Amino acid sequence: MKIEADKIYKNFPLKNLNTWKVGGPADQYIEIENIEFLAKKLKEKKWVLPIVVIGMGSNLLIRDAGVKGTVINLSKNLKKLELNQNQIYAEAGVSCSTLARFAARNKKNNCAFMAGIPGSIGGALAMNAGCYGNETWDFVTKVKVVDIDGNLYESQKKEYEISYRNVKSKKSEFFIGAYFEFPNFNSSVDESMEIKNLLQSRKLSQPLNWPTAGSTFKNPKNDYAARLIEDCGLKGHVIGGARVSEKHANFIENIGNATAKDIEMLIALMKNTVKERKNIDLEIEVKFLGEIA
Question: Which residues contact 147 (CB under 8 A, 6 or more apart)?
Fold first, then answer.
């Protein structure tokens, strides 16, 4: 089915719009063509509330009963990516791997880690996504946002509370783009080769043959969620169509027709078992969206 930009679709299935391939429909769904249209429509206040913004759905569990209100997808068309003096501007729909390669081509360093984030810039900004020792906001100088009333503006990094896998704003707003400042080229580092090596490492260490949503839990201080889950003997544990990966214990795989409930039950089992046996509270990294069936 070809989706027309800026058109509202009712009772729209979201199963194929998240990397776990689960979940029910949205009351209303729309793919935004450009930022100005988004701002205009938010000002008009005609969309059914609540308003939920999604990207590539790589860190998202959409529940089986679906999502109330209006789901706005920013990842399909907001793809502007440009070098502006010493900074790179990327809109919310640009994939993190595309930004990494663009930065490397423009002789920037320390950008390779972005290729390991399986999502879009909008999502990476919202959760301060990261891997291999770096985080998205390490290199952000300012962001473009739109608030719930349709006001467009830019905000400086210092206006947000930024921590590990978490970004707090004082306003109800959505990230629609960001300015990144990576270090300039250092001849001792071939960033394109770094990207290649990182992706090869990811292929060897992470399950890529089944639908997943990346890391399920945040790493606790001075430890790794995967190690704790593996030590509890949960690798390979199955509930319905959901399985704790044998390759990386912090990943949950949809091994065939899993429901969101299957995955949510498995998340609860992992969390409760680690708490019981290790006395560590694992914090969920995945965002839950929608209604329980």
Answer: 42, 153, 171, 172, 173, 174
Q: Which residue has the higher pLDDT, 209 or 282?
A: 282
Residue 95 falls in the annotated catalytic set? no
Contact 249, 229 (CB under 8 A): yes
256 DSSP assignment: S
Q: Which two tokens stand for residue 98?
A: 């595309």
Please return the burial class of 272, using the count of CB atoms within 10 Å of its CB with bins 0-12, 13-18 and 19+: exposed
Identified catalytic residue from 95, 215, 243, 253: 215
The pLDDT tens digits of the residues spanning 234-245 come to 999 999 999 999
Secondary structure letter of residue 138 according to DSSP = G
Each residue of 30-54: pLDDT tens digit?
A: 999 999 999 999 999 999 999 999 9
- Among residues 178, 201, 46, the alpha carbon closest in space to that of 124 is found at 178
Looking at the DSSP bridge assignments, the partners of residue 81 are: 90
215 is catalytic: yes
| Mode of pairing for the β-strands spanning 60-62 and 25-31 | unpaired
pLDDT tens for 212-227 read 999 999 999 999 999 9
Query: Residue 188: its pLDDT value, please?
Result: 62
Tell me whether residue 32 is exposed, middle or buried, using C-beta atoms within 10 angstroms of its C-beta: 0 to 12, 13 to 18, 19 or more. Answer: buried
Which SS3 state, helix, strand or coil, does residue 135 take?
A: strand
Catalytic pick among 101, 165, 202, 227: 165
Q: Give the span between the Cα atoms of 151 and 160, in whole angstroms.
A: 18
Write down the residue that tokens 């719930």 correspond to: 148
What is the C-alpha to C-alpha distance for residues 225 and 277, in angstroms, rounded to an integer? 13
pLDDT in tens, 143-176: 999 999 999 999 999 999 999 999 999 889 999 9
How many residues does the structure list for the chain? 293
Among this protein's residues, is 4 annotated catalytic?
A: no
CA 276 remoteness from chain centre: 29
